[in-house]
Amino acid sequence: MGADAKQDSPTHDVVGALNCVRERIEALSSTQNGRRVDLVAVSKTKPPELLQAAYDAGQRHFGENYVQELVQKAPLLPPDVKWHFVGSLQSNKAKILVSVPNLFVVESVDRKKTATALHKAVAKTDRNEKLKVMVQVNTSGEESKSGCQPGQTAELAEFVVKECEHLELVGLMTIGAFDTSDEPEAFKILNKERDAVATRLNRSIKELQLSMGMSGDFEAAIRMGSDSVRVGSTIFGAREYGNKVIQG
Ligand SMILES: *Cc1c(COP(=O)(O)O)cnc(C)c1O
Questions:
Q1: Are 73 and 219 contacting, i.e. CB atoms less than 8 angstroms apart?
Q2: 8 A C-beta contact, residue 230 and residue 237
Q3: Residue of the nearest CA to atom 4 in ligand 1?
Q4: Does residue 175 line the site of ligand 1, with CB under 6 A?
Q5: CB atoms within 10 A of CB 244
Q6: 100 C-alpha vs ligand 1 centroid, how far in Å?
Q7: Ligand 1 pocket test target in 230, 231, 236, 239 with most atoms within 8 Å of CB
Q8: Per-residue pLDDT of the chain (248 residues; tens, 9 = 90+)
Q9: Which domains does the chain have, with CATH numbers?
Q10: Considering only CA atoms, which of 160, 214, 211 is closest in space to residue 190?
Q11: Which residues pair with 231 in a beta bridge?
Q12: Cβ pair 16, 206 in contact under 8 A
């Protein structure tokens, strides 16, 4: 079997890789001040069998960033999976996204229009709880990355809290830039933005989680206060689109 075939095959050692990531998170527990760090397994483009293997090893939080893919995969996995939507969301897809009964959180709210669309979509379902959302912040300044601009975060967060009663603001998310330093700038910015949101909403920062850190930088993210890391390729193998391998 060639390396390419192996990457996408159910025999890719998902469980070994998952356990390795868990151990790396655990090893940092002394820096976490008693915080629990959630691991979200980002499974975009990966076949359901690989997700099921991670599920069987105890993984419950999964992240996807295409609405259609999430909607198709959700019924193929057990109903107690907690789905995180982490992709950019067009407001006309809010309704179908929200139709996934075990959608746990939408981490990628980056404009009022998206927040409003989610709020209205939830109002039309029979969900009896608010839908958890995070505000995504563009901390890298790269136009290709989504997220609101730092400096607009508090206003958007306030909009969610005051105008979208069917949504519950639980924190902030960022992707960040490629940065191998011990204290990536993006993560400093997200911490600052959380301070600004906490001040504006008169909340404690403990009530606002940070979702930051991916395969390449989740350890730095934990040291810098992340509550939730989103790890994809390190668990499931590199992603392929056509013949092109996409990392990160
Ligand atoms: C793909 C993706 C991840 C996971 O990235 P890896 O580098 O594969 O760990 C995390 N967060 C978001 C928003 C993503 O789109």
A1: no
A2: no
A3: 232
A4: yes
A5: 7
A6: 21
A7: 230
A8: 444 444 555 557 999 999 999 999 999 988 777 788 999 999 999 999 999 999 999 999 999 999 999 999 999 999 999 999 999 999 999 999 999 999 999 999 999 999 999 999 999 998 989 999 999 999 998 888 899 999 999 999 999 999 999 999 999 999 998 888 889 999 999 999 999 999 999 999 999 999 999 999 999 999 999 999 999 999 999 987 654 454 44
A9: 3-246 (3.20.20.10)
A10: 211
A11: 41
A12: no
Residue type, 27: A
What gap in Å lies between CA 189 and CA 110, rounded to an integer?
A: 16
- How far from chain centre, in Å, is Cα 67? 14
How far is residue 214 from each of residues 176, 180, 220, measured CA to CA in Å? Answer: 9, 12, 10
Q: What is the pTM of this model?
A: 0.93
99: Cα within 13 Å, side-chain hemisphere:
12
**Length of the chain in terms of residues written:** 248
> Where do we find the tokens 């930051």?
212
